[in-house]
Amino acid sequence: MAQRDIFEKCVAFKRHKVAKEFGVYPYFRPLVSSEGHRVVIDGKPRIMLGSNNYLGLTHHPEVLAAAKKALDDFGTGCTGSRMLNGTLLLHETLEEELADFIGTEAALVWSTGFMSNSGSVGTLCTRKDIIFADREDHASLIDGFILSGARLVRFRHNNVEDLERKLEANRDHPGKLIAVDGVYSMTGELAPLDQIVPLAQEYNARLLVDEAHAIGTIGEGGRGTCSHFGVTKNVDLISGTFSKSFASMGGFLGCPQAVKEYLMHHSRQLMYTASFTPSVLATVLAALRITRDQPELVAQVRENAAWMRSELEAMGYNCLSSNTAVVPIVIGPVEQMLWFNKRIFEEGIFANPVLPPAVPTNACLVRTSYMATQKRADLVEALDIFRRVGEEVGVIGPNKDAMKTHWEELAQQMAI
User: What pTM value is reported for the model?
Assistant: First the structure.
């Protein structure tokens, strides 16, 4: 029997090469410099509509000063895991202030946001348990489900009726977890926590809400989706990341104190991973304090996103049902979306294309996201580009129907 080379799939992978040949490959573009709301790529300034720097704190003078001071005080790294030599007083201060901010008994910080989900779920759940997961949950949660060995039951996206049917079918099972994103990162939709929380209570299931894209963008003072719906005290686990509104990297889990102590002594992702650097800790702590003390930043990012959503929809774009800092723009088939993204990039906008399987094949979208620090002039300039390119590519305007044949022919040529 012939042996199969594990590299065969790598050699056979061609889609990215086809996209590069047609000049529409949109990923791994190196930034030369950044001012937050504008970046320089390939020598040209572009309006940044593809960042998760929602509050614009990556260049805030207090945040930069805190990071620099931590470098002087502690050096460049902790050089060890949290369990051994990698815990600083800054860790404990951050955890205390973070728990107070999001409204949980305790908080535990991790080296990446991905680990905060995969490490917590993968440790807390076992093969004896059942996890009820929204079909659009983040990949970090999915990896946690797999690591746990628990039985996974997926329910249709934001479909509370489907969730209830599946909970009812497993009513007598003792160990149950419902896991959802508070804000879904590609569409900006909110999880209906006002309906999910009563189900969790009725069926005796624990509830985890990933607030990665909600903290800093929704809820009282940016406290997230749980705060928005007024259900924080009824949510068992609140996870999130520092790589978005908190302007750095790392992640957290808000939880009961007993859960925190269990994870500290059982989660391999925490016990065997180096602690993030002192400058990261200081950055996050400074960003948290600014978020807490300046709620007007949260109001501004919401105002920018709402204004853009209204203007884009007035042009004829479909922005789905987003009500957050994420505003998706539905384009169409893969080839049309890639060309649309290429053209707005050439005209001066950086945004993020979303491909299947994250979206249906003929409903690919460009994900735009907004910051508190963006100026209205930047957004007006971006709207002008969206109007011109949208009409050119046939997403909006009089050429919409006439362009369908063109995209069908291009699809045959590219065969992505």
Answer: 0.94
